[in-house]
Structures are given as structure tokens and as C-alpha cells.
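Closing statement on the NAP sub-project.
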Amino acid sequence: MNILVTGSNGQLGTELKRLSGSFTSHVFFFTDVAELDITQQSMVQAFVKDNGIDVILNCAAYTAVDKAEQEQQLAYAINASAPGFLADSALKNNCLLVHVSTDYVYDGKAYRPYTELDPTAPESYYGYSKLAGEQAVINSGCAAVILRTSWLYSAHGANFVKTMRKYGKERGKLNVVFDQIGSPTWAADLANAIMQIVEDPDVRNKCGTYLFANEGVTSWYDFAVEILQMSGIACQVTPIETKDYPLPARRPHYSVLNKTLVKSNFGISIPHWKESLKKCIQDLNE
Ligand SMILES: NC(=O)c1ccc[n+]([C@@H]2O[C@H](COP(=O)([O-])OP(=O)(O)OC[C@H]3O[C@@H](n4cnc5c(N)ncnc54)[C@H](OP(=O)(O)O)[C@@H]3O)[C@@H](O)[C@H]2O)c1
């Protein structure tokens, strides 16, 4: 298959690049904004048609959650309009689109893990723009798998794991919120799951929205403690409340995702977050 990966310099795109070496029967087209700006509809259409693309993996996004409250037009163009352009091209060229979304589409007020059927109610502009992107994909009628994920991290790019290691070393003391509960996701595990989905011979009969994160549940505070311990960084971590760490965008207090559907439909087995965190820290130490 000819597989287009957008936003391939990001966390998820980089993990797909690494993984692509094990999938020699496919031809990958790794692009980021310099090669293919997904907000340019005519360029998207030409790229997909001219290269005979069979599968589009949309890893491109506007992910600056707080800045999105100000830069709403840009966030909407990348997270909402552009997935619609990709979906439109997928429909015209009979491609499968795998589109990545977020736990921020939920309001975070649940008391048990979210399922695909739970109502969405984003509380931030980022969440709103990502939900609009999902809707554009669904409304296009193309063959699409939408994967909502949470707390993504990797050895590459800016993320919580790297921030905790940096500030932990520099400051020796950190305050981290304990009243936001969710599940971290190692980008390498998500990349693996995406390739398993793409290679499923029956994938076109299994299109729809799915949830994916690592197994297990934690708070940002507990996650930080584990990151620092596994990294061998001596740092005192103090749990604080969200109200004492105000940010422009509201975060869901609870965004644990129920992965039953993705596991059962695609036979995916998901590692526990601690197991994957250990591997990412090994990556970072190398
Ligand atoms: N990070 C998280 O915690 C998290 C949590 C839940 C879900 N997600 C979702 O997971 C997916 C992957 O996230 P990620 O963390 O890998 O994102 P990322 O590291 O921010 O990577 C996104 C990539 O897309 C590129 N991009 C931006 N605008 C573009 C455009 N117009 N055309 C083409 N490429 C463009 C970015 O380039 P620049 O860097 O130059 O802008 C970047 O290389 C996204 O859909 C995100 O919404 C992320």
C-alpha cells in the first residue's frame, strides 16, 4: 500500500517513521507542513491523487492547547478544516483515513472510563476544534478510523515526560496537579496500534470511532513521581490542585478511556503505562 503520513515530524509521526522499517511491503510518504500543508485543499488533493495513496495517517495537528484559546483561527484550520480536506481526498481516491483525536472532546466529568458512545462536550477551544475535525471526517462519508487518545508522550518533541525530567534536574522541587486523572499513551504504542489497524484485512468494515491509551490509570502527580523515579532524578514532588495551577485552557478532570472496542475489533493488546514509560525512558537515556 502507498501510505501518506501527515505531520510526520511530530511525536506520533516520528514513531511511525521508526516503525516503517518493519513494514517493507508498503511505500511510506512522510510529510510535514513543509512538504504538505494539510490546510491547502488543492495540494492535499493533488498529493493523494498523484502518488496513488491508499491510506492516509493524519498525525498533523495544532497541539498547543493553551495557545489555541488565542489562536482559534489557526487551530480550527489545522484541526477542523484540514481533516475535512483529507477526508474529501480519501473519499475521491478510495483511501482509508486514520485520523487521530483526543480525550479533550469530553468534558471530564465522568466517574467511569469513557466509551465511544459517551456524549462529547469539549471545554477548551483545542477540544472543540478537534471534535469539529472528527465531525468533518464522519460527514465526508470516507472510510475512516478515528482514534481518540490521551496524554501522548515520546522521546521526541515537547511532552510531560521530557518537561518533568528537565525541570526535575534543574529545580529539585516540583508541584504537580493530582486532581486530573487519565492514562498516559506512549506514541510508539499508538503507532503500533495504527499499523495493526491499517493491516487488518477487514478494516473497511470496522470503520468508526475508537479510544486508545495505555492500560492503567494515574494522575499527573503520580505520573511525574514515576517518571522521576525511573529516570533516577532526585526531586521532591508536591501534589497540588488544578485551581492552584491556573492555565488558559480547561483540562478534563477525568479522561480515562475504555479501550474494549479497539482491543476486541482489531485484536490489539495494550501494555500498561508503566511498562511503556520504562521503554521511553530507556530511549531518552540512550
Ligand atoms: N500531545 C498530546 O498530549 C495529545 C493528546 C491527545 C491527542 N493528541 C493528538 O494526537 C495526534 C498526534 O499528536 P502529536 O503529539 O504527535 O502532535 P505534534 O507532536 O504536535 O505533531 C504534530 C505535527 O503536525 C505538524 N503540523 C502542524 N500544522 C500542520 C499543517 N498545516 N500541515 C502539516 N503538518 C502540520 C506540526 O508541525 P509544527 O510543530 O511545525 O507545528 C507537527 O510536526 C494529534 O492529532 C493530537 O491532537 C495529542
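The mean pLDDT is 97. With this model delivered, the sub-project is considered complete and its resources will be redirected to Aim 3.
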